[in-house]
Amino acid sequence: MLASIHIYPVKSLGGVEVHEAHVEPWGLRHDRRWLVLKPDGTVLTARKQHRMLGVKADPADDGGITLRGLDGSTLHVESPGDGTLAPLSLSRLDSVRLAASEASDWLSHQLQEPVRLGWLDDPRRRTVSVAHGGLPGDRLNLSDAGPLLLTTQASLRQLNEWIVWTATEGDEEPPAPIMMARFRPNLVVDGAHKPFAEDNWRCAQVGDVGFRFAEHCDRCAVTMIDPRTGATAKEPLRTLARHRRWGHKTWFGIRVVPLATGMIRVGDPVWAA
Fold first, then answer.
1. Backbone phi, then psi, for 236, in 5-degree steps?
2. What is the tens place of the pLDDT at every residue in 214-239?
3. 51: alpha, beta or left, given left = phi > 0 and alpha = psi -120 to 50?
């Protein structure tokens, strides 16, 4: 069963949980169509700027977004269809369109450093790398490597059990359970699956929409930041490194590519093989 759906309109900013979503060739509609740029064109992510996780972005009916700041302020931003093209340093994409200066000023204030807000006008301009499981014709939004990230509740439950065992072995107080939000998935599946069964899925179908496995997802230090508080800790990477480490990386979740377009909804049945 599809337990939850998550959309992150701006890369590395906080997102929104939705009841239904339209699957497009490059991912969920409204997901990761915006990003934050430093003045030199470098893409800024939460790996470097932890405050980004506390700024929220909601998709708006007109195709724009509504930003909600750490200080409680909000700002509606329209999609800059005729905005200036700005070069950037992102694999397989050479430019994005800049949002109005008001948006950049507002976001610079929230992040306490000068930034610009950019928008991907046409995801058909970017492809999924062969190194990340891409096939000819696969398109990509502004995600790092794949159109969607899928995780399972069974795997998270197992991980939290391992984390308790790790703490007990070290005579530490067990931390609060890790929330799935740490991993920033698009699709969360629950049901009678064994932990990490998704490692072996070659394909999955959610409702009427099929997906193809692209690759396992390696995890970075962003998972150690609590998006609610901004506090950092050793988990979950410490425990994942004990149980889920190969190729000098730690792994949780899988990246998938849509095989069709259509609507998916929380509660939809999920078949996988």
1. -95, 0
2. 999 999 999 999 988 888 999 999 99
3. alpha
Helix (H, G, I), strand (E, B) or coil at 248: coil
Measured between its terminal Cα atoms, the distance across the chain in Å is 14
Q: How far apart are CA 114 and CA 178, in angstroms?
A: 32
- DSSP letter at 164 equals H
**Residue 250 CB burial class (10 angstroms; 0-12, 13-18, ≥19):** buried
Q: Quote the DSSP letter at residue 232.
A: B
pLDDT, tens digit, 9 for 90 and up, residues 148-188? 999 999 999 999 999 999 999 999 999 999 999 999 999 99
Give residue-wise pLDDT tens across range 100-119: 999 999 999 999 999 999 99
What residues have CB less than 8 Å from 142, skipping those under 6 apart?
Answer: 11, 32, 33, 34, 35, 90, 93, 120, 126
Query: Which one, of 58, 186, 37, 170, lies nearest residue 113 by Cα?
Result: 37
In whole angstroms, give the CA distance from residue 185 to residue 4. 9
What are the domain boundaries of the chain? 2-124, 148-272
Neighbours of 85 (CB within 10 A): 13
Contacts for 51 with CB less than 8 Å, ≥ 6 apart: 70, 110, 111, 112, 230
Residue 134: which of 33, 253, 215 has the closest Cα?
A: 215
- Which residue bears the tokens 């790996």? 47
Q: What are φ and ψ of residue 181, in 5° steps? A: -60, -25
The neighbouring-strand residues paired with 264 are 21
Amino acid at 125: R
Tokens in use for 258?
Answer: 């849509």
- Residue 67: phi and psi, rounded to 5, are -95, 140
